[in-house]
Amino acid sequence: MWVVLALGAAVFAALTSIFAKIGIEEVDSNLATAIRCVVIIVMAWGIVWGTGAWRGIPDISGKSWLFLLLSGLATGASWLCYFGALKLGDASKVAPIDKFSVVITIVLAFIVLGEKASWTVLLGGGLITAGTFVLLL
After folding, report:
1. Are residues 60 and 34 in the same domain?
2. Which domain holds residue 128?
3. Is 117 helix (H, G, I), strand (E, B) or coil?
4. Per-residue confidence band for 51, with pLDDT thresholds at 50, 70 and 90
């Protein structure tokens, strides 16, 4: 199931780039990011309320709160940078650089989370790195 969800994330991320590039043409990139955030908040909380997941809020630990808040701050910074880059650059150039986050995630997963480095992960990360640079030429 996680593979299906990950593929869905990739498809929706691609659509995000295309829709955003079209929508941002005459809009300040920070304003566009704020509008996008409101839509995401309404959608996410609608799902939480609709599924009853809100009942789990009291059970969230302090550590989880801290790291979820840090994740939210990182997401916000990422989106502000992404929309700023998208406003100024071509989507076909901005998106591959943004997806270089996959390689950065792999490195951080090794360092911070202690995940094991397999030859397939290292090869894939190397190919993504090479592909990013090829797309930028």
Report:
1. yes
2. 100-137
3. coil
4. very high
Kindly state whether residues 18 and 79 are assigned to the same domain. yes
Q: Tell me, what amino acid is at 121?
A: V
CB 14 within 8 A of CB 95: yes
Burial class of residue 95 in the structure, from the number of CB atoms within 10 Å of its CB (0-12 exposed, 13-18 middle, 19+ buried)? buried
Domain contains 64: yes
Q: Are 82 and 94 in contact (CB under 8 A)?
A: yes
Total domains present in the chain: 2
> Residue 117 domain-assigned?
yes
**What count of Cα atoms within 13 Å lies in the side-chain half-sphere of residue 85?**
15
* pLDDT tens by residue, 68-80: 999 999 999 999 9
| 62 confidence band (pLDDT: 50, 70, 90) | very high
Tell whether pTM > 0.85.
no
Mean pLDDT of 80-105: 91
Q: Which DSSP string corresponds to 54-103?
A: GGGGGG--HHHHHHHHHHHHHHHHHHHHHHHHHHHS-HHHHHHHHHTHHH
The token pair that represents 127 in the structure block? 């190919």
